[in-house]
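Quarterly update from the structural biology core.
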Amino acid sequence: MGRLFVVSLEGKIYSCRHCRTHLALCEDIVSKSFHCRHGKAYLFSKVVNITLGEKEERMMMTGLHTVADIFCVGCGSIVGWTYETAHEKNQKYKEGKSVLERYKVSGPDGSNYWHSHGAHIGGSDADDA
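Predicted structure, tokenized:
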């Protein structure tokens, strides 16, 4: 399989909930107003230590997007998705950015987010972006 090189981040870090591999810095958050089927999700301008899944078209709350799931390189867990293409003009700001699902990552203080039963169940996307 080859050698695995993992980037270590410094500062306020979001990491994989399962294996603690560093994924993103707090300072790279673009928006905290995204939602997924497990609850909250954050849009980041930069994420590390991930692999990309297959690109696919998904209808989300804000329209059609070409996205790819992202996986932790440490344990292979799905941790969110990345926006390849936004088909709506007002959604172009998402292109090249990634969403980490709070349910699947630990916060900078080591906290985990647990979804509530009242969490949104529909398509994953920002509600007010």
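The chain has no helices and ten strands.
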